């Protein structure tokens, strides 16, 4: 693309388009992508960047994967979309079958929606409708730990961390929910009985109004990249059962291998009542999410002629389901635990030298997630161009610089990402 065209497009972008969490009057820079393949983007100005982000957890097999491309070409010639009310099709049915086979055995019923946030809305509605069907219409609120992130729509926002989620700005519009402390950090840190006591006391006080407890299993993602001991999940399951509260796992970020298991749930010994998946579901090709639940919830809602009150226009979109089927076939063709364990070793060796820098407070890795926590927040206006100059695509937030590369990344590329992080931390704070 010639320079004039690049300039024209970049200028229009700045004038017309809102990007995630940015200002229209003082936007951070946005780089024009022309092509992407494997673990690399090619910018319109000719530069090539190694991708450290999987485009926010989603592009797990790399960009322009031949198998997913081919499946989509085929489906587009058959049909791209038909309404899901009254009609069905093979891509959706096959995807349902795959999801039920992959997820914990008790999860048997699948609801497709357009995005992660919507799948969370659906999960919350399922919980409320379930209790309604059981003659408990007062159970319409949710308990959740602080530092969580569940999406940007209103009900999802109501269960996000109140500070990160800016609840003060929306205080008249958001349903007040019941917050507990975030699980103490450290994947191997012994359980803190006081933490479980806090949850027990909260449940004891509020259970008559609580439909569910929603949590990201093992890793709290956008709320701070916090890793916690999976044994808390076993204890929380028991408390939920004791107080008649449904357990909802948000696996939108952690699902499909990211934490070293196919689902983060598998680090524990229990199963949730409802699970949300999204992000990597289509290999990062097209937006699609699913809310998967057990017979108890699905049949409870459907008791005595009940129907579940949700039905998005693009529910079960055939192209999205086709991309997901091709992506899940790839996931199953890898030995995912071995592959992701290898990436964890590479991330640990690439990132641990950062600990020698004064501004680095912690380095932690779990599966294909590597986190460098700084003592000060970064300035995106300043740091983003520094990463691009180093030939890498890394997008920090706050005090966190983190990597979650596509699973097809090579050790040499992770080493380059690690070197870039060290150099950029020094340049940014110099
Ligand atoms: C990204 C994310 C969501 C929201 O998904 P969208 O597709 O962006 O709506 C919800 N929960 C978790 C844990 C996420 O990481």
Q: What is the count of structural domains? A: 2
The name of the CATH superfamily of the largest domain reads: Type I PLP-dependent aspartate aminotransferase-like (Major domain)
| Bound heterogens, unique | pyridoxal-5'-phosphate
Percent of residues in β-strands: 15-25%
- Uncertain segments are none
> N-to-C SSE series?
HEEEHHHEHEHEHEEEHEEEHHHEEHEEH
CATH topology of the largest domain: Aspartate Aminotransferase, domain 2
Mean pLDDT across all amino acids = 97
- Category from helices, strands and their pairing: alpha/beta
Protein described:
By secondary structure, this protein is an alpha/beta fold. It folds into two domains: 31-64 and 335-429, Aspartate Aminotransferase, domain 1, CATH 3.90.1150.10; 66-333, Aspartate Aminotransferase, domain 2 (3-Layer(aba) Sandwich). 38% of the residues lie in helices and 17% in strands. It has helices at 3-16, 54-57, 66-78, 90-102, 116-133, 154-158, 193-206, 231-242, 295-302, 318-333, 336-351, 380-389, 411-429, and strands at residues 33-37, 40-43, 48-51, 107-113, 141-145, 178-180, 210-215, 219-220, 226-227, 246-250, 274-277, 289-294, 360-366, 369-374, 392-393, 400-403. A seven-stranded mixed beta sheet has the order 4-12-11-10-7-5-6, with helices on both faces. It has a four-stranded mixed beta sheet with strand order 1-2-3-15. It has a three-stranded antiparallel beta sheet with strand order 13-14-16. Strand 13 (360-366) and strand 14 (369-374) form a beta hairpin. The radius of gyration is 22 Å and the shape is globular. 45% of the residues are buried. The mean pLDDT is 97. Bound molecules: pyridoxal-5'-phosphate. Pyridoxal-5'-phosphate binds at residues 115-117, 120, 149-151, 216, 221-222, 250, 252-253, 278-279.
């Amino acid at each position: 693309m010639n320079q004039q065209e690049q300039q024209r497009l970049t200028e229009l972008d700045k004038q017309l388009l809102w990007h995630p969490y940015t200002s229209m009057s003082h936007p951070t820079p946005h780089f024009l992508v022309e092509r992407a393949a494997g673990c690399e983007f090619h910018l319109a100005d000719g530069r090539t960047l190694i991708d450290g982000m999987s485009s926010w957890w989603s592009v797990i097999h790399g960009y322009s994967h031949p198998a997913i491309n081919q499946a989509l070409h085929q489906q587009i010639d058959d049909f791209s979309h038909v309404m899901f009310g009254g009609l069905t099709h093979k891509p959706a049915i096959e995807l349902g079958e795959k999801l039920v086979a992959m997820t914990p055995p008790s999860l048997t019923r699948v609801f497709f929606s357009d995005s992660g946030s919507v799948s969370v809305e659906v999960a919350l509605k399922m919980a409320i409708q379930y209790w309604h069907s059981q003659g408990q219409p007062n159970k319409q609120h949710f308990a959740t730990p602080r530092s969580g992130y569940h999406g940007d729509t209103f009900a999802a926002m109501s269960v996000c961390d109140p500070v990160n989620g800016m609840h003060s700005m929306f205080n008249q519009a958001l349903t007040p929910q019941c917050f507990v402390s975030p699980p103490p950090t450290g994947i191997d840190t012994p359980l803190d009985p006081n933490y479980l006591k806090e949850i027990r006391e909260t449940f004891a006080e509020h259970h008559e109004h609580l439909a569910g407890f929603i949590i990201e299993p093992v890793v709290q993602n956008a709320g701070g990249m916090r890793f916690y001991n999976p044994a808390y999940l076993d204890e929380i399951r028991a408390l939920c059962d004791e107080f008649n509260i449904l357990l909802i796992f948000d696996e939108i970020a952690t699902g499909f291998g990211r934490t070293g298991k196919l689902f983060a749930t598998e680090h524990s010994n229990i199963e949730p009542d409802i699970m949300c998946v999204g992000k990597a579901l289509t290999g990062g090709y097209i937006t699609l999410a699913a809310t998967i639940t057990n017979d108890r919830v699905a049949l409870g809602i459907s008791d005595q002629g009940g129907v579940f009150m949700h039905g998005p226009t693009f529910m079960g979109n055939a192209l999205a389901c086709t991309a997901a089927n091709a992506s899940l076939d790839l996931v199953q063709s890898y030995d995912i635990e071995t592959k992701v364990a290898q990436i964890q070793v590479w991330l640990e060796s690439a990132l641990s030298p950062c600990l020698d820098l004064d501004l680095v407070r912690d380095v932690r890795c779990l599966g294909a997630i590597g986190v460098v926590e700084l003592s000060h927040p970064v300035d995106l206006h300043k740091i983003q161009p520094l990463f691009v100059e180093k030939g890498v695509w890394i997008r920090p937030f706050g005090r966190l610089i983190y990597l979650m590369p596509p699973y097809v990344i090579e050790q040499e590329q992770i080493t380059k990402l690690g070197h870039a992080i060290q150099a950029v931390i020094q340049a940014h704070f110099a």
